[in-house]
Q: What sequence folds into this?
């Protein structure tokens, strides 16, 4: 059975548990349920670095990319040339901030910030989160905040026992994530 994450317990109201999922409405400790919902965004410099990173990927043409474990137990990637010969590929190291996802809610009444999800701390991705990733300070664009009530649904992920898939649904606002 899945439960409300401990860090969200003070804010979870109208909790429903169905099979391998738990859902609840977010409510601030001040009693307000109206929030500005924000997800992290990249600065102009980070956007530039991401674009350079994506452009540095090896050109594989129309070939399928395969993987195998190397002698060091790390994955190696390759394409097949003439059906027999392997051409190994070297992919660039992703910028530390590239796959970080953070969602927070700011109470419209008292201004309290509630961390809903941070991929460096929660879910399957947190297992391999480095100290460098944890030290990164995410940026939020206040102009892109969505206002409204927040409902959270957490489902058990069958692929890994340690993982919970988080999906958020904004009531009366539409999809956010």
A:
């Amino acid at each position: 059975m899945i439960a409300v994450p401990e860090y969200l317990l003070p804010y979870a109201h109208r909790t429903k548990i169905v099979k391998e999922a738990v859902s609840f409405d977010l409510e601030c400790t001040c009693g307000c349920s109206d929030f500005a919902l924000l997800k992290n965004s990249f600065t102009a410099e980070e956007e530039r670095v991401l674009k350079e990173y994506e452009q540095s990927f090896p050109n594989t043409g129309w070939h399928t990319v395969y993987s195998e474990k190397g002698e060091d137990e790390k994955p190696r990637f390759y394409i097949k040339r003439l059906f027999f010969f392997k051409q190994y590929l070297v992919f660039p190291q992703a910028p530390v901030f590239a796959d970080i996802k953070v969602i927070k809610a700011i109470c419209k009444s008292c201004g309290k910030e509630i961390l809903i999800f941070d991929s460096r701390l929660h879910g399957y991705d947190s297992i391999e989160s480095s100290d460098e990733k944890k030290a990164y300070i995410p940026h939020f664009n206040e102009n892109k905040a969505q206002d409204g009530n927040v409902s959270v649904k957490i489902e058990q992920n069958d692929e890994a026992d340690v993982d919970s898939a988080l999906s958020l649904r904004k009531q009366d606002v539409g999809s956010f994530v």
In short: Residues 160-177 have pLDDT under 50 and may be disordered. The helical segments are 44-55, 131-135. The two ends are 25 Å apart (CA to CA). The first helix runs from residue 44 to 55.
